[in-house]
Amino acid sequence: MVPLVKQYFPEISEDKLHKLSRLQPLYEEWNAKINVISRKDIDQFEERHLLHSLCLTYYWQPKSGDKILDIGTGGGFPGIPLAILYPDVEFLLIDSIAKKIKVVNQVAQKLGLENVKATQERAENIKGSFDMVISRAVARLNVLTRYCVQSKIKTAELICLKGGDLREEQQEIDQYPSVIYSLDQKIPREFFETKKVVRVYFKS
């Protein structure tokens, strides 16, 4: 199963935990054909991919019917784990690399995630309104905020997973209110010592 997820997110139902537990074997199978996740990370899959993705929900929970855009989803993180958690929320996962989107679509299909759409596209070409834009370790905050306010994307908020010292990045977007949360306050494990969640607001 997924003992770390169960430990830090005890409210997740058994059915959703079961779906989350099916992810690692699926990604291991795909990784043997296409290098989607690094060998080091696949060995620590639950902590570095599942647990890390789910950490967004400590600071944000989507509402039923919300539309979420995951920019630079890679192999499907954080979008796929969050889509399992929130089956009544629509997720659009985008990445510029075709082989990664192929894996995302196959994983979503295997798990019957009808609330997931994945497409090979760059963020600046996406058009539509979203209740939240999410991302994980994709780009600097000023690049992510530019996607949210200067492209065809319409959204009021961005929430993303990042690491390290973000003070300089936060200064670069000081025209927008933002909050940085340290994940080691929630999960006191070595991997999370430098991990952060950043939430940026574009409208009052």
Task: Name the descriptors.
alpha/beta, 7-stranded mixed sheet, 9 helices, 204 residues, single chain, Rossmann fold, two-stranded parallel ribbon, 9 strands, globular
Kindly describe this structure.
This protein is an alpha/beta fold and 204 residues long. It has 9 helices and 9 strands. 37% of the residues lie in helices and 23% in strands. The protein has helices at 3-8, 14-21, 23-31, 39-43, 45-54, 79-85, 98-111, 141-150, 167-172, and strands spanning 67-71, 90-95, 116-120, 128-130, 132-136, 153-155, 157-163, 178-182, 195-201. The strands form 2 sheets. The protein has a 7-stranded mixed β-sheet, sandwiched between helices. Strands 4-6 form a two-stranded parallel sheet. Strand 1, helix 6 and strand 2 (90-95) form a beta-alpha-beta unit. It is globular. The chain has one domain (3-201): Rossmann fold, CATH 3.40.50.150.
Q: What would you say about this model in short?
A:
The strands form two sheets. The chain has a seven-stranded mixed beta sheet with strand order 3-2-1-5-7-9-8, with helices on both faces. It has a two-stranded parallel sheet with strand order 4-6. The protein contains nine helices and nine strands.
Reconstruct the topology from this structure.
Layout: H1 3-8, H2 14-21, H3 23-31, H4 39-43, H5 45-54, E1 67-71, H6 79-85, E2 90-95, H7 98-111, E3 116-120, E4 128-130, E5 132-136, H8 141-150, E6 153-155, E7 157-163, H9 167-172, E8 178-182, E9 195-201
Parallel strand pairs: 1-2, 1-5, 2-3, 4-6, 5-7
Antiparallel strand pairs: 7-9, 8-9
